[in-house]
Amino acid sequence: MQAFRILIVDDHAHAREGIREILEDYEDFQIIGEAKNGQEAINLTEELMPDIILMDIQMPVMDGLQATKRIKLKFPYVKIVMITVSDDITDLFDALKKGAQGYLLKNIVSETWVEHLRAFALDEVPMSKEIAFQILKEFPQNQERTEKKTPLSSRELEVLRLVAKGLSNREISENLFISEHTVKSHLKNILGKLHLDNRVQLASYAFQQGLMNEQT
């Protein structure tokens, strides 16, 4: 399996060094560059074309939220994972709505950190309960919504609704009696048809379009 190409973006040199030390022990990750702020991240993304960007939030010149939005607009296929010392759900939810795949806390143990990063790389991370709650706050369930026309097939709608409920790929496969590989294939097709980047955006779409009013 080819290694995932990683760009590290953090304004603190010791933080970048710490991330490098963690990932250097794993053959499925290759660090191809480092940036000190969001503007450098944009420039290096264009130059190096990473698979994954590990993006700090608070940085000078341009913060991680602005950089994430600009990078995802220009390079939608690049995965961005926010790295932060704080689990302030407001900033993290904002980053996810701008296209980031998820977030990692800097203070968790390295083995768990790598395990989570690998799951992000493979699109296997379900939404956290905190993020699901933020989506529910955005789209109150007592508000009347009518289901709008969607480009998705009936099976894709089933998968979408389960994603919006926070289920993992494995749980979706068990619910629908299909393989995890088939789930991944459906998710890729759904994201492509809707021009979205991640599960949070999919869940927001499902609630916004009134698709959760129907039973799966």
Q: Give the integer mean of the pLDDT values.
A: 88
Main pleated-sheet profile? 5 strands, parallel
CATH fold call of the largest domain: Rossmann fold
Named CATH architecture of the largest domain: 3-Layer(aba) Sandwich
Structural class: alpha/beta
What does this structure look like?
About 50% of the residues lie in helices and about 15% in strands. By secondary structure, the protein is of the alpha/beta class. It has 2 domains: about 5-120, Response regulator (Rossmann fold, 3-Layer(aba) Sandwich), CATH 3.40.50.2300; about 130-215, Rossmann fold (3-Layer(aba) Sandwich). The longest helix is centred in the last third of the chain and has 15 residues, at about 180-195.
Give the tags.
216 residues; alpha/beta; Rossmann fold; 2 domains; 13% strand; globular
Ordered list of secondary-structure elements with their pairings:
Blueprint: E1 4-9, H1 13-23, E2 29-35, H2 38-48, E3 52-56, H3 64-74, E4 79-84, H4 89-97, E5 102-105, H5 110-121, H6 129-138, H7 154-164, H8 169-176, H9 180-194, H10 199-208
Give a short synopsis of this structure.
The chain is α/β, with parallel strands linked by helices and 216 residues long. The chain is 50% helix and 13% strand.
